């Protein structure tokens, strides 16, 4: 790897390349001014080194390998990856970098990337959901170190931006998401659709109202049935649609909630005392 070109590379990018050559890692937040020039001075072997793990480099490669598309069901552009096995240099570099990230037993770097919480994560989510569908399953079932906020963000972005073909073509992937979402009583939280937060997370092109429509469609395509719903924090529009579409399990808590919110009926103490034990929900979820 060559890294010293007096007039062609800025000092900040030289420092990053020097850290790789010296095998002394910089913070992954180290900004890159001209990532395309950095990439031109790297080889595939460098992507086996932990020193290459850098946020700007990762997102540069993701954007270079993505194609923005609009589907019939989505009225906004989302990044798609149609040539994940391409022999082109940027794709090979990206695949090697992602493999190194996922080889970490605790997903430490991935967790830190998701903590950024901005719209660039849409590229990462869609690439992982195309090329490494087992990644999300591991996070849901096995990666206790992965923060709950980042986990929930991964799942929610998957429903909003992942193309439907990548979402449903693998049965295990589809079932993992469906069961997880069904178990999340605060999944319809209105705070997710705060306009300013939504713009920061998804960009100007994806409006919260469009995202709600897609979310409802995806809940149906995944056959989500909420085991419990936090009505107090739920977006009112989404809650009404979930009720209308019967996207909830038939159990005592949900029936009582629907009677209260839709018909104004409240359960009496006598009813609470005499009611039969609730039937087993349609599906049960046991995440460890």
Plain-language structure description:
With 288 residues, the protein is mainly alpha-helical. It is built from 15 helices and two strands. The protein has two domains: 1-52, no CATH class; 53-274, no CATH class. 52% of the residues lie in helices and 2% in strands. The chain has a two-stranded antiparallel ribbon. Strand 1 (67-69) and strand 2 form a beta hairpin. The chain starts with 10 loop residues before the first helix and ends in a 14-residue tail after the last helix. 30% of the residues are buried.
Describe the secondary-structure layout:
Layout: H1 11-22, H2 35-40, H3 55-65, E1 67-69, E2 78-80, H4 89-103, H5 108-114, H6 121-131, H7 134-141, H8 148-161, H9 164-168, H10 171-182, H11 195-202, H12 208-221, H13 236-244, H14 252-263, H15 269-274
Antiparallel strand pairs: 1-2
Instruction: Tell me the quaternary state.
Output: single chain
The biggest beta sheet is recorded as:
2 strands, antiparallel
Shape from CA axes? Answer: elongated
Low-confidence stretches: 284-288
In total, the number of strands is 2
Number of alpha- plus pi-helical segments: 15
Q: Indicate the structural class.
A: mainly alpha
Rounded Rg: 22 Å
If you average the pLDDT, what whole number results? 88
SSE pattern, N- to C-terminal: HHHEEHHHHHHHHHHHH
Count of the separate structural domains: 2
Q: Strand order, biggest sheet?
A: 1-2
Strand percentage, roughly? Answer: under 5%
Q: Report how far apart the termini are.
A: 44 Å
| Share of helical residues | 40-55%
